[in-house]
Amino acid sequence: MTGELPMTFDADFPMYVVTDEESGEVLLAAEEVEGFFVAPEGESPEVVFLRAHRVEKDRRRTDNAVLEIVNRRQEKVGEYFIGRAVLGDTGMKLPDGKISSVSYRFFGNRCEYPGAAAVWRRWASGVAMEKGEWLQWPVSHHGAWLHVVQNAWFTSNHRAARYGVDEVAHLDGDHIFTKSGFFCALGEAVNGPGGYFGSNLDALADCLSSSLDEKPLVRVVWRNFRASQEVLDRAFLDSAIEVMREFRVDIAIC
């Protein structure tokens, strides 16, 4: 796997929308954002939105801000509750009528996965996810991919449960290099491309528990398990298998 990102999708639609949760009012709609998808040590006081299509200058602050990720059809595919937000400076008006930049001071948490911005752009493209697509991203982005999968899953009102029709999930140890990669692979194996089935062991237990009565996961076939043993913590592997067996999932290791 190289360190290069796979092809991403350019867009001129307002992908980032700031709304007031209480009133539903749209405060800002912009194409890009800087300073939100950052590691904790890289946080700055302001978040800057680029190429804004709309900004509500008369509403300078809110205590219920939500940052929404929208796709080309202007459907919400992800969201972050921000809380208090204060409008700052606005840049110049561009020839196409958009505003070059708009700054906001966010007092809530940021997304701690810098790579999530690129993954969200892929998610918002409207192009259907393909099987194994997460493997096209560098290993360093697998945590960000899992984060977006989880956020998008619950934003679309899915439950922590199995929606797929196959009672058997197939994993390939040659493709699992990290704990995040394990959950990316399992989510896809159970619920299809872009699917979610836990992001940690407690969440996995929740998904298995919720599926137990109606659509239980019956079996996991884990090929090339030795490759997983070579790169993943033994305690994590043992715990993952123990959780699945606790909910009567048969584990076939080969």
TrEMBL record:
Domain of life: Bacteria
Listed Pfam families: Barstar (PF01337)
Limits of the Barstar (barnase inhibitor) domain: 168-247
Transmembrane segments: none
Family statement drawn from the similarity comment of this UniProt entry: Belongs to the barstar family.
Protein's UniProt name: Barstar family protein
Organism: Streptomyces olivaceoviridis (Streptomyces corchorusii)
